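Components:
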Amino acid sequence: MSETCINCGHSLCARRVPIFSKLDGKEIESVVTLIRRKHFDKGENLFFEGGELQGLIIINRGRAKAYINTPEGKEQILHIFFPGDFFGEKSLFVDKKTEYNVKAVEPVDICMISKKDFQELIKKYPGITSKILQELVNRIDRLESMIENIGAKSVDSRINAVLLEFAQKSLDENQIDSAAQFELPLNREGIANYIGVTRETVSRKLNLLQEEGVIQMIGNKKIKILDKNRLKSE
Amino acid sequence: MSETCINCGHSLCARRVPIFSKLDGKEIESVVTLIRRKHFDKGENLFFEGGELQGLIIINRGRAKAYINTPEGKEQILHIFFPGDFFGEKSLFVDKKTEYNVKAVEPVDICMISKKDFQELIKKYPGITSKILQELVNRIDRLESMIENIGAKSVDSRINAVLLEFAQKSLDENQIDSAAQFELPLNREGIANYIGVTRETVSRKLNLLQEEGVIQMIGNKKIKILDKNRLKSE
DNA sequence: ATAAAACTGTGATTCAAATCATGATTTCTA
DNA sequence: TAGAAATCATGATTTGAATCACAGTTTTAT
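Structure:
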C-alpha cells in the first residue's frame, strides 16, 4: 500500500492537519505510514456518543456535523467539521467518553490514527502536544462565542453570524470580499439546529436577507454574500 | 513572608488545584513559593477582556463570574468560578487574548502564578501539562452541555439544570440528597444572564418551582432542593 | 425516467417569554 | 440606624418566534 493518501491527490493528508505542521518532510512521512483511510456516505455516522473512539480522526474530504440529541427530541449541532478539521483528540488524553454524535452531511473521507500509534507519536515528537493544546483552546473560543450568540443575541444576529462563519470556513478573505459563492454545509433544518431556532425561521430570515440585498441564494445550497458589512453589524 | 497561603488557613492553596494534585509534598511547597496573593472586593474586576493576563489565577475564596458584554448591551455569563477553580491557563500556552471579563460576585481571594514561573514549573514537572489538557477537556464538555441547554432545551429545563449545577458546585452528594441549603452564586439577573433569559422569567420560574414543592427558597440567596429527581427529569 | 422521499416556502394561529410598569424587599453605606 | 440604592415580585401587554398546515420544489433511488 502506498504511503501517500490517495484521496488527497498527490499531497500527504497529514500535512493538512495543524497539529503536524511543525514536523519536517521525513517526519511527516513516518506519520503517514500510521494512517488508515475510510469512507462514509452521506448520512452515515462516523461516531456515536458514548462509543469508543478509535483514535484521532481527520476529515480529508466532505463535511460532517457533531450533534447531540436532547431528551426532548431536538438536535443541537455543536461543530461543523470541514476538511482539515479533526476530532477524537479528547480520547487520546483523557479517559472520558465523548457525548456527541458525528454524521457525514455529504460523502466524507477520513484519515485515522489509532490511539496507540498516536501516543507513540507524541513521545517521539512532543511538540505535537502543544499543537493539541492550541487546538483545544481554539475550540473553547469557538464554543464561548457560540454561547454568546445563542444565549444573548437576536435571531437576526445569529443568522448573520452563522453565514459569516460558513463563508470564512469555505472561502478565503479575498473571495468573500468579491462576493464569491459557496456551498452551505447544512440544509435549512441543520442551520436551525445549529443556532437554536426552527427551520421555518431560517427560511424566512434568509429570504428577508435576500430581499434586502445582503445575500443572494443560488438554488438552496449555494449562496453569495453581497454585503459583508451589513452581516457584521447588528 | 510565609510560604503557606494564609488565606486557606493552614493548608496550601496549591494543593486544592487539580493541576498540582500529582505533585508530592516537597514539590508542592516549591510551587507555593511562586504564589502571590491578592484580594478583590465584591464587584471588582479580576480581569478585563483583551487585557494581558498575568498568569494562572486560582480562586481561593469567594466566587467570580466570567462574562461577555454583547454589542446589544446584554451580558452573557460563560463560567462561574468557585474556590479551587482557576483561569488564565490559556495565556500560558497560546499567544491569544482572552475575550471575556472576570468579576468578583462576592469578596474574592486569589492565588497567582506568573506566566514565567509557570513555564519553568512545566519544564520541571511535565505531568502538569497533561493535567491542564484534562482541565481544558472538562471545560469543553461543560461548554458543550451549556450550548445544548441554551440552544435546544426549554426555559424550564435550563432553570432546572442551573440549580443542579450550582448545588453540585456548592455541596457534596450527600448534602444534596438530604436537601441541604446552599447559597446561589448569582442574583436573579445573573442567573438570567447565564441561561439566556430575563430576570423576570427567573423570578417567575423559581416561584413556580417553590409552589410545586421542588425547591425551597430561604430569603433570596439561599435555596434548598427538596426534590432532586423532579429537577433532573423534563 | 419516474415515483418516492426529503426538503423548502409561506400563510394563519398560538404561545411563551420579553417588555413595560410599579411597588415591595433587601442590602448597602454614610 | 436611616436613607439610598439595588434587588426582587408580579400584573398587564406586546411581540417574535414556534407551531400548524399544506403546497411547491428538489433530491434520491430504482
